[in-house]
UniProtKB/TrEMBL annotation:
Pfam families named among the record's database cross-references: LolA
Residue spans crossing the bilayer: none
Organism of derivation: Chryseobacterium sediminis
Keywords: Lipoprotein, Signal
Lineage, uppermost ranks: Bacteria, Pseudomonadati, Bacteroidota, Flavobacteriia, Flavobacteriales
Protein name: Outer membrane lipoprotein carrier protein LolA
Length: 215
């Protein structure tokens, strides 16, 4: 479980730059649904998700853990078990409490974070997108959208399940070429909360006993 979380939360699967020369195909209905959800999230001062993170092999989830995700503009904080990732708008801080390690890096556009909403933007360049109809997910008659990489990036496909009426994500499944599967199922969603001003700030003084590496 820890190894899968490390792969997912620390930048996970590498995504190369992909241009339209690769004949990217995006279904018009799926694009409208994803763009409507993106516009809805972007219109909020901030968003909060409480979710379950599941992982396993061969498409079967064998273990789940709770997670939380805060976002305000481009800044975010994601926490699953003892692993936390913060983006303050400039640098990404990967904090592993179990190993007492912090890795600091500049975003370089070559990685995609596995979060409740990251694919709402990365699909535009990196994936073929198809609309697969409706499917009941967690009591919601959700629209089912499939993303397939235009170019090899370690991911076999991604399933997005969305509540189009509320313009919100319901569930996200990421299936890797190595048969790993990672799933985020959103349990609770809040918006426009009064957040701590330091929510997206990394305070090095709180990690004096950690090994801190800046790449």
């Amino acid at each position: 479980m820890k190894n899968i979380i490390s792969k997912v939360i620390l930048g996970s699967f590498v995504v190369g730059a992909v241009g339209m020369a690769n004949a990217q195909k995006i279904d018009a209905k799926a694009k409208k649904i994803l763009d409507d959800i993106t516009a809805n999230y972007n219109s909020k001062k901030n968003s909060y998700f409480k979710f379950s993170f599941g992982s396993g092999l061969n498409g079967q989830v064998t273990k789940t853990e709770p997670g939380i995700y805060y976002a305000a503009g481009e800044k975010y904080k994601l926490k699953i078990m003892d692993t936390e990732q913060i983006f303050d708008g400039s640098k990404i801080y990967n904090i592993n409490a179990d190993d007492m390690e912090v890795t600091i890096a500049k975003p370089n556009g070559s990685g995609t974070m596995f979060s409740p909403i990251n694919y709402l933007t990365t699909y535009r360049n990196d994936y073929n997108v198809t609309y697969n109809g409706k499917k009941m997910v967690n009591g919601v008659n959700a629209d089912f959208i499939k993303l397939t990489p235009v170019k090899a990036n370690g991911i076999q496909f991604v399933y997005l399940f969305v509540d189009s009426a509320k313009k919100q994500m319901v569930k996200l499944e990421q299936h890797g070429n190595n048969k790993d599967v990672a799933v985020i199922a959103i349990k609770e969603y809040k918006e426009n909360q009064q957040l701590d001003p330091n929510m997206f700030v990394f305070d090095k003084n709180k990690f004096k006993n950690y090994v801190i590496t800046e790449l």
